[in-house]
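#lab-general

N.A. 3:47 PM
ok so I finally got the sequence cleaned up, no stray characters, all 707 residues accounted for. can someone with queue access submit it? mine expired

B.Y. 3:52 PM
send it over

N.A. 3:53 PM
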Amino acid sequence: MKKDVRILLVGEPRVGKTSLIMSLVSEEFPEEVPPRAEEITIPADVTPERVPTHIVDYSEAEQSDEQLHHEISQANVICIVYAVNNKHSIDKVTSRWIPLINERTDKDSRLPLILVGNKSDLVEYSSMETILPIMNQYTEIETCVECSAKNLKNISELFYYAQKAVLHPTGPLYCPEEKEMKPACIKALTRIFKISDQDNDGTLNDAELNFFQRICFNTPLAPQALEDVKNVVRKNLSDGVADSGLTLKGFLFLHTLFIQRGRHETTWTVLRRFGYDDDLELTPEYLFPLLKIPPDCTTELNHHAYLFLQSIFDKHDLDRDCALSPDELKDLFKVFPYMPWGPDVNNTVCTNERGWITYQGFLSQWTLTTYLDVQRCLEYLGYLGYSILTEQESQASAITVTRDKKIDLQKKQTQRNVFRCNVIGMKGCGKSGVLQALLGRNLMRQKHIRDEHKSYYAINTVYVYGQEKYLLLHDISESEFLTEAEIICDAVCLVYDVSNPKSFEYCARIFKQHFMDSRIPCLIVAAKSDLHEVRQEYSISPSDFCRKHKMPPPQAFTCNTADVPSKDIFVKLTTMAMYPHARLRCLCACNRCTFCICQSFLNSDLLQSVKNKLFTAVLTRLRAQVAEWGATLLADDEGSIVHQVHAVSSVEDSIFMESSHGPLFLEARHVTQADLKSSTFWLRASFGATVFAVLGFAMYKALLKQR
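B.Y. 4:20 PM
back already:
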């Protein structure tokens, strides 16, 4: 909506232009009228639309043609004033003023005009019969108002209609000649209907209508009012209501009715709530809300955004097969001005056997867009009506900006859920196979991919120590030197072909040029391991190269399998991206070996809970010990031991009762109260726990060193 409105009054001399302005301001007819009134500014708080309004007078006697042309170019709406008792002034409306104004304005953006018949107090008849043909001839004329500056008749209404013509113009919405809404308006309202139809059944039920009413006008409709609206549609349109719900035709009919009855501000309120401007285009402020992203930070979708996308997927997955067919996907994107996803998306994310994007693939593609181009993601969410349906200020509330990666490295932990891995290697070494294997496609399925539909990205979920993370693979084209953008990533996958003797040399050279002194973890993958391995033409073997640079050994990989290719390397890459500070580490992430079991146990909520409770118990005991130090010195030794055992046993009971999820805790619950009171038992238990902890730590370090 415009920030202010500028109204210009023009017309023949002595028709009462200045009198109209002065009567509005003083609320009485002036005894003496100057040749021209000074510019009047009406504050926003006294106007119906809460917008500052500037009223400008024109005097032919005091102003030149150049000044008139300047005022026309500055105006938002022009009131052409005539005297109802002066036929000459009426004739001048079409012979002089309308042509003059149209010459100074663009044909595609005509200024709205208001015809003002002043001095209605001097005649007993109306001039509307003469004016109506003029209104039909010129579509830029919004309305005609007969008024009287002397009797103050319709003075406030005149300027209200002028303001309304600017803030709620009829031109973009309605075609008077054809008596129907314009295509752009129909397109915008159709998008609004589809967004509001949250169950995608083709009608707006009572709940959806109430939600629509509340978000647009901040008040719900009473049940009787809802029924009255539907009854009006039923009387005028046979297919306007179906199954007690308002159809698209009924929705469009209602807005046509509003416009025809002069209530087009109702339609404009709806359009502006859904992000449209005066040209019925979505505003940049709506599509691209402000979002600050500091350097070395990434963008991810938050939990609320994933819930919204899940509801969008469920809304359009009509056959409930957890995949979107081409028709379902096309229906989903009908609220977009263009088709945002091309055929390459099917080779970027997971699909089912028929090549349809699955639920996981749908979320993965949105995750990819958010990571690579967050502005485009904001735009897409705007088309889907995210801020409206979730009742948020903007789409920016759907985005999480991660913290600086330097902080992650300092704290040796990350809060990120999306990790980027650049896949580097010579052309033909098998990089595409690595990307497609992440999506679960073997070599046979990859052969059906057309060259023009290939993608340089692949994204899918990977589980690391029970946590779901997104791994984003980017195929970097072969070149002598990598650009700065191609170096930025969380992990690097250097791929060489075991059957090509010249393949490894490129990986070694790129590693030495860009990654040898960086903190980005690297993994070398020996692709096409099903083929005969040849000696690489390099000074040292790939295994020795990895050992020399303290890297994990080369990982054998092939996608020439009968079933889904192994995902071991993807788990390893994600693990390396999550823990880049750990130089010596287990890379299997199998959840079966000693390292993985220990890692999972150390990260478990159970252990953290027990640690917190033990820490609290120790602090409590120390405070009590200090407070009772004097009394303890006087007490009997045996009595003191029994007292301490009672206190500790009560704490241990609470810990074991609240955290009894494993066999150790189950056994502890069966320890009798008599044993807990025995000082000998506690000595044995303490000694055994100490020995167990020392041996366990020694074995853990030995395993790490061996790996």
